[in-house]
Amino acid sequence: MTPGEFRLRVCFAKGGRLRWLSHLELVRALERVVRRAGLPYAVTAGFSPHMKIAFGHALPVGTEGEHEYFDLWLTSYVRPDEALAALSAASPSDLEPSEAAYIGDRQPSLTAYLNVAVYRVVVGGEEELSVQSVDEALRTFVSAGELRIERKGKKAKVFDLSRSLREEPRVSVAKDGIEIAMSVRVGPDGSLRPEWLVRSALEQASIAVPRVHVTRVDTLVEVDGGVASRPM
Q1: Residues 86 and 97 in one domain
Q2: Could you tell me if 171 and 207 lie in one domain?
Q3: Do both 106 and 123 map to the same domain?
Q4: Is 198 helix (H, G, I), strand (E, B) or coil?
Q5: Neighbours of 160 (CB within 10 A)
Q6: Domain edge (last residue) among 77, 111, 145
Q7: Both 101 and 139 in a single domain?
Q8: How do strand 211-222 and strand 116-124 relate by DSSP bridges?
């Protein structure tokens, strides 16, 4: 971090119609929010300077996020509550910031720091589902130990479920279907997308599920000892 700059971490939610934004579109949308908020943002050096802003792990298109994060470098100090109020006033309703705090300059980048993603998956469809049938399908699939995703024209992705899953998925009844709580490890090479696991498990059990709604509830930092916490 350049001397005289302040690193502000912001927690925000992405939902509703804006869940269909790509990561690049999200970056541009939040840069516009920062400009409208009138915050004294820093810019990079070089021939093509741009806003100094950095994000956590990208959300897949169509996935909602309840606690997403970005770091914004400022050229002068603004009280966190004032910065949050300015960002909130400049944000669309489906891209609402909820918290802001300054962090130390020695902390790693968000993508290097955050290593656990917590998801809520709601499945439903024309076929009536039960907690027991979904739970049994997931347990059977996870016990096999591997998920293989075939990709057209590309090498297949293979996930070791004992390493990709931080804990066993938990199944319960939701208002609009069956809810699956899932905690996934995140690394530099990406992570297991929960809808891949859910659809594969249910298809193997011959359960047709046309609707899968995914929300990333949080992204966390897991340290030695297995304790996971938020990055601010």
Answers
A1: yes
A2: yes
A3: no
A4: helix
A5: 11
A6: 111
A7: no
A8: antiparallel
The number of helix segments (H) and strand segments (E) in the chain equals 6, 11
DSSP letter (8 states) at residue 165: B
pTM for this predicted structure? 0.90
* Alpha helix (H) residue ranges in the chain: 23-37, 80-90, 110-113, 131-144, 161-164, 194-204
Instruction: Give me 148's structure tokens.
Output: 């293989």
Q: Residue 99's domain spans which residues?
A: 6-111
**Residues 141, 54 within the same domain:** no
What amino acid occupies position 201?
A: A
Same domain? 33 vs 107: yes
User: Any idea what the CATH number is for the domain that residue 187 is in?
Assistant: 3.30.70
Residue 181 lies in a domain: yes
Q: Which residues contact 98 (CB under 8 A, 6 or more apart)?
A: 11, 12, 13, 67, 84
Strands 211-222 and 64-74: parallel
Structure tokens at 211: 């609707």
For 188, counting Cβ atoms within 10 Å of its Cβ (0-12 exposed, 13-18 middle, 19+ buried), the class is exposed
pLDDT class of 105 with cuts at 50, 70, 90: confident
**Cβ neighbours of residue 45 closer than 8 Å, sequence gap 6 or more:** none
**45-89: per-residue pLDDT in tens?**
888 899 999 999 999 999 999 999 999 999 999 999 999 999 999
Alpha carbons 198 and 203: distance in angstroms, whole number: 8
50: exposed, middle or buried (Cβ count in 10 Å: 0-12, 13-18, 19+): exposed
